[in-house]
Amino acid sequence: MAKVLMKGNEVVGAAAIAAGCRYFFGYPITPQSEVPEYMSRELPKVGGVFVQAESEVAAINMVYGASGSGARVMTSSSSPGIALKQEGISYCAGAELPCVIVDMMRGGPGLGDIQAAQGDYFMSTRGGGNGDYRLLVLAPSDVQELADLVMEGFDLADEYRTPVVILGDGMIGQMMEPVEFTHPMRTDLPVKEWATTGSKGKRQNNVINSLYLQPEELEEHNVKLQAKFARMRENEKKVETYNIEDADLVISAYGTTARIVKTAITKLEKEGYKIGLIRPISLYPFPNEPYEKINPECKGVLTVEMSAGQMIDDVKISLNGSLPTYFYGRTGGMVPEPDEIVNKVKEILGGGK
Amino acid sequence: MAIVFEKTRGLTDKETHYCPGCTHGIIHRLVAEAMEELGVLDDAIGVAPVGCSVLAYEYFNCDMQEAAHGRAPAVATGIKRVHPNNFVFTYQGDGDLASIGTAEIVHAAHRGEKFSTIFVNNAIYGMTGGQMAPTTLVGQKTTTSPLGRDEGTQGRPIKISEMLATIHGAAFVERVSVDTPANIRKAKKAIKECFKVQLEGTGFGIVEVLSTCPTNWGFTPVEATKWLADNMIPYYPLGNFRKPEEVE
User: Which ipTM value was assigned to this complex?
Assistant: First the structure.
């Protein structure tokens, strides 16, 4: 199939449908409202169901019910809406319910604004709700990658019985780029024998639950969850690297910010600078290995984010003190210009080449 | 020897954790019997709440999901939309449904979601130790209204059935009580009727069941049923508020 020109938010919907998602529960919020709009238009055509929920809280709990019933299901929102969903996300994590949750981040805190930002890194990667849990968090930097990660996200959600967060921002949601939906889908995933479908009197009752009143049982459940997160760390790290073994400075950035960083690197290379890039694609699990492979003569790692500095914590954990770290960030929906990053690099490297 | 009575297949053999004299046990049995008699047990998917009946998933003999506090109608919406031919019900108390979950129940009714809700109203938060609920009667003493509920600052108790009956999508709304054998029989009839509304696909259905909480009310079971009859029924009148024929 030839590539088609589509807006990021609509690509989320199209990729989900291509991945076999037939249920969407959502609530309007800028800058992601094209997702529920697209799903309300397209899902009925493929025998699917769109429900505009009364709230973000209700939407994620509808996802819980649908996922617990065995369906491929998605919800989407933007930062303040995702904050509202955290209760349900924690319950989904606790009850091990697969689903895809799309966050097209906007400026915060509070009501913030509707421009692109990356202030939800902590909320997404640390587990924004109560209890010890982690989510698979994937951060696309262009519309094609958005399509691929949404499609893969459904397979990963089912494989690990976990919510998967697609962490985009208002920019990627609103931009149009050519895209195709060709990501190969898995055919080896197990049947969801745990789902509530009605016992038909032929099996034990299935119960979807995150309540374990006996501390011994709850600890055992947590040990099982932690083992799952360890498996994710073992198998699901995704990262793009460039020139890290020969760089005088490595820049680390994710999502759309990484694209701006790439433009800055191209400019710097024309001036003779040797700059590397580490672009985490999975934010949890965080791809720590490339940070250990950086040229030991490198002057350090500059993290660039559209936040006051959140991913930099994981960069520091990954470096474990082996190299100096620097930070450049814009907040409130302000997008860094390539030249701002170029100037920051020159400031760190002392203007020398 | 002929069998003249059997425990309903709709309940598991698990011993319930309910306090002596609590009427949850009666209501569980009515719900289970209704499902068995309508032949929907093997297709049933129930949603348990947060509150005294949080462990309902261990007692109803069917597939179950445990919802977050107040969210059972949203969870049930997700289930019913995936499995429109299965029988789906929520079982919720008054803290769950009438306080933290008012948005979810109102909008499930508003959309006309085709599942059934059993709403157990005992005018108090039981599991957490007897705090005031939106359904607590004026003057009723609880651990968070130690001088009695004050109408001036805490309002009058909310009448959920009357409120939901104003919503078009709510095809069946009835309030019953389980304080006497006669009322228990009427409650069973209402629950079956409500479930039939779901099976016919007419819309959302709810049965509000006035229930006792001897432990937190500070009464014996017998005193508690009398208190219910003398105090709750006059404020929460029994009867049907909406039937499918009223849904044009």
Answer: 0.97
